[in-house]
Amino acid sequence: MTGTVTVEVGLGDRAYDILIGPGLIARGAELIQKRLPKARTAIVTDENVAAAHLGPLVESLTAGGNPPAVIKLPAGEKTKSFDSLETVVDQIIAARLERGDAVIALGGGVIGDLTGFAAGIVRRGMNFVQMPTSLLAQVDSSVGGKTGINSLRGKNLIGVFHQPKLVLADTAALDTLPLREFRAGYAEVAKYGLIDRPDFFAWLESNWQEVFSGGPARIEAIAQSCRAKADVVARDEFETGDRALLNLGHTFGHALEAATAYDGARLVHGEGVAIGMALAHRFSARLNLASPDDAARVEAHLRDVGLPWRMADIPGSLPDADALFNFITQDKKVSRGALTFILTRGIGQSFIAKDVPASEVISFLKENHPG
Ligand SMILES: NC(=O)c1ccc[n+]([C@@H]2O[C@H](COP(=O)([O-])OP(=O)(O)OC[C@H]3O[C@@H](n4cnc5c(N)ncnc54)[C@H](O)[C@@H]3O)[C@@H](O)[C@H]2O)c1
Ligand SMILES: O=C(O)C(=O)C[C@@H](O)[C@H](O)[C@H](O)COP(=O)(O)O
Ligand SMILES: [Zn+2]
Q1: pLDDT, average across residues 50-63
Q2: 39 Cα–ligand 3 center, Å
Q3: Residue 1 predicted with pLDDT over 70
Q4: Which of 35, 131, 133, 154 could form a disulfide with 330 if both were Cys (CB 3.0 to 4.6 A apart)?
Q5: Is 146 annotated as a binding residue?
Q6: Percent share of the chain, pLDDT over 70
Q7: CATH number of 23's domain
C-alpha cells in the first residue's frame, strides 16, 4: 500500500473523508479547495510542527491564491487551556475569517482538540480541517469531532462536538515524530484491537516492528485504526452508547494525566492510555470477568514496544489512591454519580460496565499504587 487510502466517516450530510498517505501537506490547497471552494484559511500549529512542516502548507495555500493566517503556539498538553483558546479565537477573528472559511489544525492531538473547539465556537461554528502530524492524531484525535481543553480538575472537561470537513493524514510527516510520541500514538492503535478486533491485536503483536519502521504496515495500521474509529463514530456520534468503548483505558489514564498536572515530561496522553488499558484488563481479571492471562498478554505487548504499563513506570511520586479516585469521579462517563468503566471479557471483548462499585475501584488503586 503506497498511494493514498481514503476512509469515509459516514455522517449523512456532514460525512467527510480521511485521506491517508505521503505528501498530503504539500497538496493542502488543492485538496481543501476541492471541498471548500474559495475558502480563506488560518493555520493553527505548534512550534515543533511549524519547524518541520508548516512551510510546504503555507506555500501550497499561497500558490493557490489564498495566503493563510498562521497562529503558532507552544507544544505540549498545557496548550489545551483557556489562555490558548483565547489566543486562537482572537487571531481567527482578527484575520476576519468568515463562517464558510476554514481553520486548519496542523499538528498533534493537542492542536487538533484546541483548534476544533475554537472553530466550533467562533461565529457559532466555522469550517474546520484536520491535518494530523502525530501518529496519535492520525489514528484517533483527528477523527470523530471531539474537541476541547483541559481543566485542572480533569481532562477534556470543556469542549464541544464539532466535526471537521476533511482529514488529511500525511504519513510522511511521521518521519520527524520523536520515538516517544510515536509509541504513545501506538497505544491508541492497539486500543482498537483490544476493544473488539482481536485479529488486529494479534496482527500488531506480530507486525509492530514494521509499523514502527514505516512502509506498508504503518499505513495499514493507520487505515485499520481510522476504519475502526469511523465505524463507531458513524453509529454513535455523540457518545450515547457504543462510542464510550473508544474510552478503553481512559478512565484510569485521564486520572493519571490530571494527577501529573498534564506534565508531558512525566506522562503524555498515549502513555496514560497504555497504563490505563493494562489497568482496565487487570481490573477486569480482579473482578473475575477476564482471565489474568489476557491481562498479562496486554502488559507484555505494551512492554515489548517500550510503553509504560503500570503506575510505577511514571517518573516521580503520584497522589494517593483516594486522590486518584477523586479525579476518576470527574470522568464524563459518570452518570447520576455512578462510575462507568470500559472493562473486558478478554482480548477484543471490551464492554461498557455501568455502576462499577467505588469500593472495588479504590481497593484496586490501593493494590496497584506504587507507594
Ligand atoms: N479528540 C479526540 O478524539 C482525541 C483522541 C485521542 C487523543 N486526544 C487528545 O490528543 C492529545 C494528544 O495528542 P498527541 O499525542 O498528538 O500530542 P501532541 O499534540 O502534544 O503532539 C505530541 C508531540 O509531538 C510533536 N509533533 C507532532 N507532530 C510532529 C511531527 N510530525 N514531527 C515532529 N514533532 C511532532 C508535538 O509538537 C508535540 O510535542 C491529548 O490532549 C488527548 O487528550 C483527543
Ligand atoms: O473519540 C472518542 O470518543 C474517544 O474516546 C477517543 C479517545 O482516544 C480520546 O482520548 C478522547 O478525547 C477521550 O474522550 P473523553 O470524552 O473521555 O474526553
Ligand atoms: Zn485517547
Answers
A1: 98
A2: 31
A3: no
A4: 154
A5: yes
A6: 99
A7: 3.40.50.1970
Please tell me the distance from the alpha carbon of residue 317 to that of residue 270, in angstroms, as a whole number: 19
Backbone phi, psi, residue 294, to 5°: -70, -40
Ligand 2, residues at Cβ distance < 6 Å: 140, 144, 146, 155-156, 188, 239, 243, 246-247, 250, 332
Give dist(CA 89, CA 158) in Å, integer. Answer: 15
Number of domains the chain contains = 2
Residue 371: pLDDT band (50, 70, 90) is confident
Total count of residues recorded for the chain? 371
C-alpha cell of residue 121: 465556537
Task: Look up the ipTM and state it.
Answer: 0.99
**Same domain for 154 and 216?**
no
Pocket test for ligand 2, best of 140, 233, 334 (most atoms within 8 A of CB): 140
**Residue 129 sits in the same domain as residue 241:** no
Average pLDDT, the chain: 97
pLDDT tens for each residue of 205-231: 999 999 999 989 999 999 999 999 999
Q: Is the pLDDT of residue 2 over 60?
A: no
Distance between CA 44 and CA 88 in Å, rounded? 8
pLDDT at 195 > cutoff 70: yes
Mean per-residue pLDDT, 266-287: 98
Distance CA 14, CA 18 (A): 13
Ligand 1: residue of 9, 44, 48 to mutate (most ligand atoms within 8 A of CB) is: 48
Cβ-Cβ contacts under 8 Å for 337 (sequence gap 6 or more): none
Find the domain containing 74 and state its range. Answer: 5-177
CB of 188 within 8 A of CB of 153?
Answer: no
Residue 315 and residue 344 in one domain = yes
Together in a domain, 281 and 344: yes
Report the predicted TM-score, pTM, of the whole model to 2 decimal places: 0.98
The one-letter code for the residue type at 146 is K
Catalytic choice (269, 281, 297, 301)? 269
Give yes or no: residues 229 and 276 share one domain. Answer: yes
